[in-house]
Amino acid sequence: MAKKDEQAQPQGSGSVTSKRPFGLRDKIGYMFGDVGNDFTFILQMAFFMVFYTRMGVNPGFIGTMLLVVRLFDAFWDVIFGRIVDVLKPTKHGRFRPWIGRIAIPICVASALMYIPFVSSFSTTGKLVYMVCTYLLWNFLYTMINIPYGSMASVITDNPKDRASLSVFRSLGAMIAALGIQTVLPIFVYTYDEATGQKVLNPHNMAIAAIICAICGIISYYITFFNVEERVEPQVDPNHEKAGFGAMLKTVATNRALLALICAAILVLLGSFIAGQVMPFIFQDYFGNGQLQSWGGLVQNIPVLLLAITGAWLTVHFGKKEAISVALLFSGVVGIVMYFLHLDNVVIFLVLYFFMALGLSTFNSLVWAIITDVIDYQEVRVGERDDATIYAIYSWARKLGQALAGFIGGWSLTAIGYNEHAVEQGVTQTQSVLDGLYLLFLIVPAVLYLLAGLVMAFWYPLTKQRVHENYLTLRGRREKATGRKADLDSKFVGDSEDAQVVDPAAGVKVPAGGSSATAEWVSPVMRDTALGRETSEERRMFEEDRRIYKEDRRDSKDE
């Protein structure tokens, strides 16, 4: 029999296993998962392009390779996500075991990408080695990142706790980013007498990659031993799970997911293009690659601030609302910086802090938004496909990364960047420097503005709607199990209209009350129970259910 202090309270739409309660141990454990991720991911984003450019590879070729491999990997994300969803869980859960299985292989693959003897290869040899090692790393990254991201929805179902997990995940990314973007530039950039600039040293880069790999392995195993999967979806024995094709059709009607995908692609295009150009901005525009460490520090300070204020923002304003304003703010600051055309690196970094502040808000809260989208899908169709939905979102991220790598690489070629400048003992021309400045600021700024508009006007999950979905899924579980689950009174109380109707069964919960005492009503009373006119929402719901049932029939016929 489990000890009393290890009994978990019922937490949501799925059954909750009797394990230790959710707490700080889970948050810290989950945080280290993204530390492990980003010891390879941010390393690739920050140094892959400049490393192989230093090896003499044309940046346009690098961009093309990034596009092709990431497009392939994007589809692998969706396939692997479905594999994770359909495999039977082990004693450690459905997602957690993958962290332990893939931790060592992915970190070894990451270190292999930065071997300095590549410089002695022929042009073809360089390209083959670059493609093979990058493809291997991408393949393995999917196999650890999809389970890691999906795991947040089964660690807890409480929206506040999920927001806290999202913030801790971003804090983990900040820890890795500070090490990679702030410390590594001091070590990997050394003085070059021919150009009089501090440029990337390939041998130092290899040592740095090995150190990051070791740190990544340690971080992954901290996650493996310190998180618990608690939430399991309720399984109706009379309900046949939809086929893969039907599931994809249903997900394609999920407005929240589609809007998030669009916004994520825009944000990733902007942030990845800026991330790829950042080493060149400091190495060539400001003439000192070691200044990238200050850029990395300024870029990550906002993440620390959001670790303190992120939960407060979600409780008082909502995730959608905070992200929309933040992205619009980042876009405006970037445009102002571009037209100022700054030469003073101190002023540049101060203003860049404010541009990064808005972007960091999106990055800190987006993982909590994913869990909201997963809940929204379950409310709509009655099935929970955590890994599949996360994989589709990851697919969109990979698409954005692919386009960003392609655009970033060929943009450097288009502005005339000379990849042999160090060997030739020359610096980049003024037109190239102006082009770098444009790529780093104006392109991301415009993309952030567009993403902010998408989140403001297309993404439907407002603060109140998230409250409603939370209570709906609570009500479903209580009806299925006959057990009372205590609601988070503070969370419910934050909503002025805390009544909700389950669109499938119909449950109305009084404000501040427990769903165990809910009044069960028919779906046609949805508008009345919510106390406001929602005929359009009811029409959309009925259409969703119709499409879902048709897709299931088609799947059975196949």
What features would you describe in this structure?
Pfam families: MFS_2. This is Glycoside/pentoside/hexuronide:cation symporter, GPH family. Keywords: Membrane, Transmembrane, Transmembrane helix. There is one protein chain. The protein has 558 residues and is mainly α. The chain folds into 2 domains: 21-461, Up-down Bundle (Growth Hormone, Chain: A); 466-557, no CATH class. It contains 18 helices and 6 strands. The protein has helices spanning 24-54, 59-86, 96-112, 123-155, 159-188, 202-224, 244-251, 255-285, 292-316, 319-340, 345-381, 386-414, 421-424, 430-457, 463-481, 489-493, 526-530, 535-557; strands at 15-16, 189-192, 197-200, 231-232, 507-508, 519-520. Strands 1-4 form a two-stranded antiparallel sheet. A hairpin with a 4-residue loop joins strand 2 and strand 3. Helix 8 (255-285) runs parallel beside helix 12 (386-414). The longest helix is centred in the middle third of the chain and has 37 residues, at 345-381. The radius of gyration is 24 Å and the shape is globular. The relative contact order is 0.14.
